[in-house]
Amino acid sequence: MTTRAVMLAGALIASAIAAAAQPAPQSAVPSDSEIRQILIDRIDAQHQSVGIVVGVIGPEGRRIVAYGHLEKGDPRPLNGDTVFEIGSATKVFTSLLLADMVQRGEAALDDPVAKYLPPGAKMPGRNGRSITLVDLSTHTSGLPRLPTNMTPKDAANPYADYSVEQLYQFLSGYQLPRDIGSQYEYSNLGGGLLGHVLARRAGMDYEALVRSRICDPLGMNDTRITLTPEMKARLAAGHNQALDTVANWDLPTLAGAGALRSTANDLLTFLAANLGYTKSPLAPAMAAMLKVRRPTGQPTLEVALGWHIFTTNGKEIIWHNGGTGGYRSFMGFDPKTRIGVVALSNAETTAGVDDIGRHLLDAGVPLMKSHKEIAVDPKLFDSYAGRYELAPGLVMNITREGDLLMAQLTGQPKVELFAEGERDYFVKVVDVQISFMTGTDGHATEIVVHQNGRDTHSKRIGDAAPPKEHKEVTVDPKLFDGYVGRYQFAPNVVLAVTRDGTHLFAQLTGQANFEIFPEGERDYFYKVVDAQITFVTDGSGRATELILHQNGFDQHAKRVD
After folding, report:
1. Which of 5, 161, 237, 320 has its CA 20 to 30 A from that of 402?
2. Does 1 score more than 90 pLDDT?
3. 534, β-bridge pairs
4. What structural domains and CATH numbers belong to the chain?
5. Which residues contact 449 (CB under 8 A, 6 or more apart)?
6. In angstroms, how far is CA 29 from the centroid of its own chain?
7. DSSP class of 380
8. What secondary structure does DSSP assign to 431-448, as a single string?
9. What is the mean pLDDT of residues 274-295?
10. 8 A C-beta contact, residue 13 and residue 409
11. Do residues 196 and 159 lie in contact, with contact meaning Cβ atoms separated by under 8 Å?
């Protein structure tokens, strides 16, 4: 999955548990030497990046702490002028453009998006309501994370060949699954579309609009999409999770979702304007961004125009992060203490830099620790399966699915638990650990959830809610030939369906290959996890797409070969 999907999965668990927790003691922002040690540990001990730059701004001024290198094997160090892809942090700039246009009287938050599209381009609607600009900015439009007709030729640069024509084609044929404004769903498509229509309104391309309305007034000369030769010399190379060098990303059509490159110094300048340390004509628009808020379904997280707002430990943190195929970014600030933090990494790894940024803004948020997975007997999982109540209406459902141990919080997706001891487990997508407390018979009586420096005890209240039962039926294996192929959910996320004799298999990018079993001619289920697949076929029996049913969601994937 993408970086943002991982981040949200973590935020869902974190906010739900933190809602019932007591505030933790606070402390000042760590010293430069303490921040440097954090970066040394993240790079040299945890091997979660090649180079990281952190910037801090506060009443006493600004400072930069950097550690690591521009590229693996390259001895050159990083500094505050090193250029990084900032990914989805671009969306804050896109929404600032919106807020500024509103201040200038050039647009209104409630303007229909269709107002700024060319004749013939059609926007989806539902129950008589049209998608508005504010719906895009707050991720409440009902549009999916990515358009389903996005089939990149180069998986290493997945947005590069997605055209405006394809965007309009998708919008014209898409049916919204729910009412507009009824639910938060993070959408790169929505962010990119917002940037596209604002650029059309201004009569210039997105990069020119960002430069003229934001970068030039603030003196941010290193925040660009198209790099000068001199900036290219300062560009940190991106790295994947294995810390191998990867190509940079290009987002010509959906630039507003994540195309910007920037430096720690430039982003500190941006935060300085948001915090009022520097006077700016954008001050009214920046203030207006925080006044518009929408619920996310998480008790401690709201979304404003572009920014997310996390409330915990008595603090309100304004933030956004980002990630591309080779980078991770974080920028945020505390409006009460007037402290802002930027963290930029040249590796797209699980740990990223979100925890570093949040820890520097709120000492009660601990840094992510490294955990070592060990092998345990899966029979142990039978003793841990059950339902555990964290708070009224908030239950953790622990299930065994084959050789996997899964945890699912009320209303949230399942996550796999990995053993670091017979009774101690951790989640890889977020810094959460779970310990099982057992009775004399070895069966768990409660769990202890370790997160954000707190231990939350939850008593077992009953058996695990079982996954839906599925009955395997016999079908003609010749049907499988029509299903064999590759189906794309998102850039770099493809499900490959293969046939081996009388067996059908499905393998998601980066995952193991699992057999799927028929419960109908077009309906199949996994035995290792509670998920099902439906093949949508044409008149010849050839699948044109598939639908993955899991965790209460239906995800469509078009056939790409």
Report:
1. 5
2. no
3. 523, 547
4. 31-361 (3.40.710.10), 378-462 (2.40.128.50), 477-559 (2.40.128.50)
5. 17, 390, 396, 432, 433, 434, 455, 456, 458
6. 26
7. G
8. TEEEEEEE-TTS-EEEEE
9. 97
10. yes
11. no
